[in-house]
Amino acid sequence: MTETSLSAPVRIAAIQTVSGPDVAANLETASHLIAQAAAAGARVIALPEYFPLISKDETAKVRIREPEGAGPLQDFLASEARRHGVWLIGGTLPLVAEAEDKVRNSTLVFDDQGRRVARYDKIHLFGFQRGEERYDEAATIEPGGTVACFDSPAGRIGLSVCYDLRFPELFRAMGEVDLIVLPAAFTWTTGRAHWEVLLRARAIENQCYVMAPAQGGCHESGRVTWGHTMIVDPWGEILACRDEGPGVVVADLDPARLAAVRGSLPALRHRCLA
Fold first, then answer.
1. Where are the domains of the chain?
2. 49 catalytic, yes or no?
3. Are 161 and 197 in contact (CB under 8 A)?
4. DSSP string for residues in 53-97
5. Cα(59)–Cα(61) distance, rounded to whole angstroms?
6. What is the CA radius of gyration of the chain?
7. Which one of the listed residues 61, 80, 102, 122 is annotated catalytic?
8. What mean pLDDT do residues 5-17 have?
9. Considering the chain, what percentage of its residues have pLDDT values greater than 70?
10. Which of 61, 80, 162, 244 is catalytic?
11. Is 122 a catalytic residue?
12. What is the pLDDT of residues 99-143, one digit of tens each?
C-alpha cells in the first residue's frame, strides 16, 4: 500500500485570474489573491498558467522572457512566497529557450523563504483548430522533456501544465505523489467538454489530490478561458471550484483521506504494466 509522510491536514489554495496584456496589472491582481489565500491559512498556493501575461500578440511572451534565476517575474514570486511565508507554485512564466524566437513555458516553485526549489517546463504543446478558433503553442513555445516532483508541506507534489492533462503517461511517470498541480488556461470550447472529467480521472487513477488553478473568463485579447479552478480529492470528489472570474479556491489535503482511499482500493499496487 502506498503511504504519505503527512501526519495532519494541510490547507492548499488555487488562484484563478483573467490575465491581460498589462504585466504590472496582472502581478498586482496575483499579489492580492496570494495575500487572500495566505490569510485563509493556505500553506501551498498555486497560480494559473500565463498568470503574468495573456496577449493577442503571441510573441509578447518572447519579449518578456527571463533567464533562469533572474528577472522581475521570478523576483515577484520569490518575494511573495517570502512575504507571506508560503510555498508558491508560480503558474507559468516565460523563460529563455534554446531557440531565439521561443520561450519555455515554465512552472517555478518557491519555498516559504523565497528559495526556488523546483522547475517544470511544459512538455505537451497545445494545438487546436475548429472554424476560426485556432491555437498553436509550438509556434512560440519550446517543449520541455523532464518530469518534475518535489517534497513540500503538502507532501510529494508532481507538476504539470494545462494540455499535459490529456497524457496520463506523464502522471504515471511521477510515481507516487500526494498532490498533482496543474496550472492551466483551458479554452472555453475544450474546457466545457473535457476539463472536469479529465481532472477527476487523473485524481482517481493516481489516488492523489489534484489542484488545478486556471484562467477563467473573457480576456482583453478576445480569448475566452474555461476557468472552473478546482481541487479534487483522491476518490475523484470535487472539494472546491470557482466557475469564472478572479478568486481563490481553498481546501484541505487530508492524509487520512489519502490513506483510506489507497488502503481500501490499492490500485497502484495492483498495476501489472509499467
1. 10-264
2. yes
3. no
4. ---SSTTHHHHT-B-TT-SHHHHHHHHHHHHHT-EEE---EEEE-
5. 5
6. 17
7. 122
8. 95
9. 99
10. 162
11. yes
12. 999 999 999 999 999 999 999 999 999 999 998 888 899 999 999
Mean pLDDT rounded to a whole number for the chain:
97
What confidence tens digit (pLDDT) does each residue in 212-245 have? Answer: 999 999 999 999 999 999 999 999 999 999 999 9
Q: So what's the pLDDT on residue 133?
A: 86
102 annotated active-site:
no
Kindly state the cell numbers that stand for 73: 517575474
Beta carbons within 10 angstroms of residue 112's beta carbon:
17
All three cell numbers of 192, joined, read 466545457
Helices 72-84 and 23-39: crossing angle, nearest 10°? Answer: 20
For 194, the grid coordinates are 473535457
**Mean pLDDT across 147-154:** 98
Distance CA 186, CA 10 (A): 27
Pairing of β 224-226 and β 87-89:
unpaired
Task: Say how many residues make up the chain.
Answer: 274
In the structure grid, which three cell numbers stand for residue 67, read together?
533567464
Cβ contact 232:132 at 8 Å: no
pLDDT of amino acid 1? 36
Identify the three-state secondary structure at position 6.
coil
CATH number for domain 10-264, candidates 3.90.25.10, 3.10.105.10, 3.20.20.190, 3.60.110.10: 3.60.110.10
0.85 exceeded by pTM? yes
pLDDT at 89 over 50: yes
Residue 4 has pLDDT above 80, yes or no: no
What's the Cα-to-Cα distance from 43 to each of 11, 81, 152, rounded to whole Å?
Answer: 6, 10, 9
- Is the C-alpha dihedral spanning 168, 174, 179, 182 positive or negative? negative
